[in-house]
């Protein structure tokens, strides 16, 4: 189980990264940023940091790592086909449940 202090540190890091990317644009750049690369970088940086912080928990929060991998794979495929958050989440949870059920029934 993750301690409360670890979760608060994670939230503080996410806040700092999100705030820093927005503050850099407001404080140091006086005119609109025209570079597509820099605009894209500043836009996607908070999402990538969040994904990096959440991904290990997705794999290791299940009873068996292969069920976490299967759930992640299903979620990635459905997200690639632009399904909504609820169907992706429900399908990933169902996949984890079924894989772990099969593993414990066959083991």
UniProtKB/TrEMBL annotation:
Transmembrane segments: 6-29, 41-58, 64-81, 88-106
InterPro entries reported in the protein's UniProt record: Brnchd-chn_aa_trnsp_AzlD (IPR008407)
Keywords (A to Z) from UniProt: Membrane, Transmembrane, Transmembrane helix
Top-level taxon of origin: Bacteria
UniProt signal peptide: none
Pfam families in the record: AzlD (PF05437)
Name of the protein: AzlD domain-containing protein
Species, as recorded: Candidatus Borkfalkia faecigallinarum
């Amino acid at each position: 189980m993750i301690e409360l202090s670890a979760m608060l540190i994670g939230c503080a890091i996410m806040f700092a990264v999100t705030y820093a990317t927005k503050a850099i644009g407001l404080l140091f750049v006086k005119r609109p940023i025209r570079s597509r690369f820099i605009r894209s970088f500043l836009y996607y940086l908070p999402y990538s940091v969040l994904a990096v912080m959440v991904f290990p928990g997705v794999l290791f929060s299940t009873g068996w790592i292969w069920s976490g991998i299967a759930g992640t794979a299903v979620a990635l495929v459905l997200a690639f086909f632009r399904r909504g958050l609820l169907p992706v989440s429900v399908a990933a949870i169902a996949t984890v449940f079924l894989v772990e059920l099969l593993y414990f029934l066959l083991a």
